[in-house]
Amino acid sequence: MNSPARYACGSLDHALSRRRFLSAASGAIGAGSFLGSVAGLHQGVMGNPIAKNDYRVVVFNMHGGLSQLESWDPKPSTRTGGPFRAIPTSVPGIHICELMPKTAKQMHHLCLLRGVNTSEDDHGKGAYMMLTGRRQTPSAEYPQVGAVAAKMLHDDQTGLPGHIIVTPGGGGGRGNESAYLGPKFNSIHLGGDKPPQNSTKPEAIADVAEARRHELRRKINEQYLNQRRSAITDAYTHSYEQALKLMERREVFDVSKEPQVAQAMYGNSELARQCLVARRLLENGVSFVQVTHSNYDTHNDNFNFHIEQVGEFDLAFATFIEDLAQRGMLEKTLVVVLSEFGRTPNINLYYGRDHWSKAWSVVMAGAKIAKGAAFGQTNAEGTEVTDGQVDHGDIFHTILRGVGVDSSQSLMVDGRELPIADPAAEPIWKVLV
Questions:
Q1: How confident is the model over 46-51, as a mean pLDDT?
Q2: Which residue in 88, 114, 154, 368 has the most C-beta neighbors within 10 A?
Q3: Residue 411 burial by CB count (10 A; 0-12/13-18/19+): exposed, middle or buried?
Q4: For residue 59, what are the β-bridge partners?
């Protein structure tokens, strides 16, 4: 599924977004890649350190726009419903699409948000809104949820980055999602189930020589920082030290360390291996992991595509939820399944569904989120929200509250108070416990 999809809209925003998610970033995960794009980063100094907790967040980004009608909010036997049935779940009265029979058995862990209305049908803008909780504006740049989670939750003593994005193909580069939080909280990109690139010491370099090299670097850094310390110089120093710690814990990223029975349980797909990596990262102290499943931009042949793609997701996701629950991790791990928008109830002449942001679904599970619940409702044909309408800002607040972070608080940046979530929105209190 990694080749360019003929059914996609082909817009510039979509092409850029697809490359951002699916292309291998250039550079290595050693010092060089950790320092990429530093020149354009904000130089503010953060204040008010916040106490960490042991919650985690994992986001499944169904990039391109998952159809809510072929997943969480089916409308069988209607003009817009398509060919698939709705099936019962482990929670009486809640039905989801028949393409997800294994996920249906995990419904008692899940919370469906069926009343999402973001009113933005553009790929790039929609993705920005869902990951930052704000509308995109030329006057300000806001940190994505992964950067905020890393800032609020991560403990540097784990020796692993706090913000990791797992994407098919390539990997090893560093993202730029932290805005005013600073480069420390940008993401590390992994290429599927592969350990970070260039994260082993060349055999030609002796351990003694390596230790001396880093000792010299630290002394020079210390002398320089005493005279010209800034957010950027701190970022350089942190990146080198983080790279060294990551090299020491490289095996955490290696799913071959998992028992064969576990690998078979998740399935033999790239997404399955990404889910295994995500679970290993979470249980080793990484605060935020994003897993990308792409590309749901089904303007053509929507139904055949969802049979294949949602079927792959169903096995891996249901196993992931059950695995976390059995290990006792789900109580401290918030799982979110989102897209940049949903798909139109109307079926176009190419048997596809187009962009639709006025009535679609997001799913949450674990942590402080209600279990076995369906909040919000759309009308009979799925064209509009009739109850429990929420948007990207409300969801962002709810993610933070779901992991014990007060989403109404602000951070001090360059002497200014900046709210970590949109003050015009609020948490979805009815789904929080």
A1: 39
A2: 114
A3: buried
A4: 290, 336
- Report the alpha-carbon distance of residue 399 to residue 396 in Å, rounded: 5
State both tokens at 23: 């292309």
Long-range contact list for 329-333, CB < 8 A, 24+ apart?
329/56, 329/279, 329/282, 329/283, 330/109, 330/365, 330/366, 330/367, 331/366, 331/367, 332/54, 332/55, 332/56, 332/366, 332/367, 333/55, 333/56, 333/57, 333/58, 333/282, 333/366, 333/367
Q: Which two tokens stand for residue 126?
A: 């929609």
Segments making up each domain of the chain, as ranges: 12-196+231-431
The 3-state DSSP composition of the chain as helix, strand, coil percent (nearest 5) reads 40, 20, 45
Place of tokens 């995990």: 106
DSSP annotation of 75: -
What is d(CA 350, CA 343) in angstroms, rounded to the nearest whole number? 14
Q: How confident is the model at residue 414 (pLDDT cuts 50, 70, 90)?
A: confident
Does domain 12-196+231-431 bear CATH number 3.30.590?
Answer: no
- Let me know the angle formed at the C-alpha of 401 by 372 and 119, rounded to the nearest 5 degrees: 80
pLDDT-wise least confident of 20-34, 69-83, 167-181, 215-229: 20-34
How confident is the model over 288-306, as pLDDT tens digits? 999 999 899 999 999 999 9
pLDDT at 314: 98
Q: Helix (H, G, I), strand (E, B), or coil: what is residue 227? A: helix
pLDDT digits (tens, 9 = 90+) for 310-343: 999 999 999 999 999 999 999 999 999 999 999 9
Cα 302 to chain center, whole Å?
Answer: 24
Strands 355-356 and 342-343: antiparallel
Residue 87 β-bridge partners: 96
Q: What is the pLDDT of residue 171?
A: 61
